[in-house]
Amino acid sequence: MEFQANEEIRLDNYLSKELDESRSQVSKIIKNGEVLVNGKNVKAGYILKKGDIIIVNHKPLDDSIVPEKMDLDIVYEDEDIIVINKANGVVVHPAPGNYNGTLVNGLLYHTKLSDLNGEVRPGIVHRIDAYTTGLLMIAKNNKTHEFLAKELASKKAFRKYIALVWGNIKNDSGTVDAPIGRSLNDRKKMAVVSNGKEAITHFKVLKRFNEVTLIELRLETGRTHQIRVHMDYIGHPVVNDPVYGNRKLIDNSGQCLHAKTLGFVHPKTLKYMEFDSELPECFLNILKLFEK
Asked: Of the listed 52, 80, 115, 129, which one is catalytic?
């Protein structure tokens, strides 16, 4: 695409209007070298002059991410947003060596998605682990994506989880405020580390059993494996977690952790929306073992 500037204006502001994209997305395009001004790469803050020629060679989604027909549990959908109840064992987005069978593959078959997160994570505003079940919000366009990302970053979005953890938690409620970063002992794992990013998890006891406790959790932040790391940190790792806690595994269905409730402000109507979901069968089957 080729444009000719007719005023003195920042490059990112100009392209944001011309391309109908957010400034952050335009900045990424410029940083990736996909924009030339008079034949040269410039920075996002470059001040255009009248008559400058801008050429945009923005690449579409990588063709290697193939849309796949998939059964999607769609809780809500409109022209901007999809709320998905993710099944157990489904990876959210492709990664090197794993470009098929992910939620993104299924979503691309179903609809168009934002490309704010690049080629392999279109539409993905936030993630949950493959063996964590529950609600996710998906953005269909970049403006929606940027709005929802800000909701999460400013801690306005509401996320409530249900987990089954080992041991009996004595306090009826509490907060874990401990920074999370890459483990110093195992780079494949996350851990509470002094130089980690802020991570805050609130919990409330729902029911105590002989060996385990059923709890409700609310996230203020969204660090990788946050609930799993925090609960392990306080000595109550999530039941059936194959990575954290070093406890016996009941089966191979993954950790008993479910993203039950999701709430956010809609980017167009500016009205608060909240969605709820039921515990999946894999979670209930393990819970029944402790109810006897």
From this structure: 129
